[in-house]
Amino acid sequence: MEMLDVVDEEGNPTGMVVEREIAHREGIRHRTSHVWIMRWGESGPEILLQKRSASKDSNPGCYDISSAGHILAGSGWVSSALRELKEELGIDASADELHYCGKRTMYTESMFHGRKFIDNQVSSVFYMIRDVALEDLKLHKGEVDEVRWMTLDECKAMVRENTMDHCIFMEELEMLPQSPEEALQEAEDNMGAMSGQAVLYT
After folding, report:
1. Is residue 107 one of the residues assigned to a domain?
2. pTM
3. Cα separation, 73 vs 30, whole angstroms
4. Total structural domains in the chain?
5. Domain that holds residue 96
6. Where is the Nudix hydrolase domain (predicted)?
């Protein structure tokens, strides 16, 4: 049983907790961490996509963020992001590899496996630069079916035109850097944003 913090619109814990299943059944706001793994290719930035397992309780068989997961009650954004990287992909990463892009909110209502599924979440979005070899990844069975590299521009086009099964939001793709220079500038700009919320980002 996974217990999640109930949070306000900014992602601050309210002191109440809820079971994950109930949170999605009743649409109770909770937190998630999202990590985009990137590398710099000859045609521009590339992102690692994971294909969700067909048995997932939401968006089965869809292409998704490199790694994402719920933040358990009492846990922090960064520690949760690092835990999901290890659990889903077998990647050992350190906190200083995660670059903060920003925070976003999401509310969706869908039907999966014949049941209503409400996603009401506040997410902290990160990216990390690492040219991982697909064959070196250790995919979590039951969570991830496969992974693939795709250029950021190609992914944006496919999301915009809805030409692949996915659960990716354009807003999040637009948060990612387009070049090493832009990545460096974003890291400097966001340093203050994270230091101002040190308690949340542990």
Report:
1. yes
2. 0.91
3. 9
4. 1
5. 3-178
6. 28-172
